[in-house]
């Protein structure tokens, strides 16, 4: 298995919260995906919460385009625990900015991008399903009130079964919390809200 920092040219180490935003539409493609350490005030975003200050790698795939073969439609970015003793976590993130009526179709497209990226990274020996808990997270920053963004998955039982057998979890949140070196968790849902 190749270490994350050996596989990619542009890798950052974080030990605090990060925010992922895609400025492509907002700046007419002058800026793209950014992993930020300060909360942006000009765009909605995905938030990776690290209250325990656990070290982890962050990889913006737009800064590592040479890693991917032409024609691979990869997701936005990847985060991975840095110092896991046994089984660490890897979280692939895809953001979709869209109108509310397009959330479902964008969720489906995001899921396919995440799945394709994961398969590619497994094939390149960057992700090892025996040593990583893999989280595929769909983020639709403009529509937090519709979380989780997973309504499409209930019709894809075969896909979910295959993913669950490999301990791959599909998430649909704009905020995910680092629990420890081995696990992530989603925010508690308000059952009344």
Q: How would you explain this protein's 3D organization?
A:
This protein has helices spanning 4-7, 103-123, 157-165; strands spanning 12-14, 18-22, 33-36, 46-49, 56-60, 77-81, 88-95, 132-139, 168-171, 175-178, 184-185. By secondary structure, it is an alpha/beta fold. Strands 1-5-6-7-8-9 form a six-stranded mixed sheet. The chain has a five-stranded mixed sheet with strand order 3-2-4-10-11, with no helix packed on it. The longest helix has 21 residues, at 103-123. The mean pLDDT is 88.
Topology summary:
Layout: H1 4-7, E1 12-14, E2 18-22, E3 33-36, E4 46-49, E5 56-60, E6 77-81, E7 88-95, H2 103-123, E8 132-139, H3 157-165, E9 168-171, E10 175-178, E11 184-185
Parallel strand pairs: 4-10, 7-8, 8-9
Antiparallel strand pairs: 1-5, 2-3, 2-4, 5-6, 6-7, 10-11
First and last CA, distance: 43 Å
Helix and strand string, N-terminal first? HEEEEEEEHEHEEE
Shape: globular
Q: Could you give the count of β-strands?
A: 11
Derived from helix and strand composition plus strand pairing, the structural class reads: alpha/beta
Major sheet summary line? 6 strands, mixed
pLDDT averaged over residues? 88
Distinct helical segment count: 3
Helix content: 10-25%
Rg estimate, integer Å: 16 Å
Low-pLDDT segments: none
The share of residues in extended strands comes to: 25-35%
Major beta sheet, strand line-up? 1-5-6-7-8-9
Summarize the structure.
With 193 residues, this protein is of the alpha/beta class. Helices cover 18% and strands 27% of the residues.
Q: Which descriptors apply to this entry?
A:
alpha/beta, 18% helix, 27% strand, 5-stranded mixed sheet, 193 residues
């Amino acid at each position: 298995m190749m270490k994350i920092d050996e596989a990619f040219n542009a890798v950052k180490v974080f030990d605090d919260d990060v925010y992922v935003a895609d400025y492509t539409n907002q700046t007419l493609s002058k800026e793209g995906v950014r992993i930020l350490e300060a909360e942006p005030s000009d765009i909605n975003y995905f938030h990776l919460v690290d209250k325990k200050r656990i070290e982890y790698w962050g990889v913006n795939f737009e800064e590592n385009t040479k890693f991917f073969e032409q024609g691979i439609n990869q997701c936005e970015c990847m985060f991975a625990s840095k110092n896991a003793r046994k089984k660490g976590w890897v979280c692939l993130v895809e953001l979709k900015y869209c109108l509310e009526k397009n959330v479902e179709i964008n969720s489906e497209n995001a899921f396919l991008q995440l799945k394709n990226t994961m398969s590619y990274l497994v094939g390149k020996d960057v992700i090892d399903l025996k040593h990583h808990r893999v989280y595929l997270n769909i983020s639709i920053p403009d529509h937090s009130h519709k979380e989780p963004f997973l309504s499409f998955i209930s019709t894809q039982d075969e896909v979910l079964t295959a993913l669950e057998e490999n301990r791959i979890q599909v998430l649909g949140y704009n905020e995910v919390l680092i629990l420890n070196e081995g696990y992530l968790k989603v925010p508690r849902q308000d059952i009344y809200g």
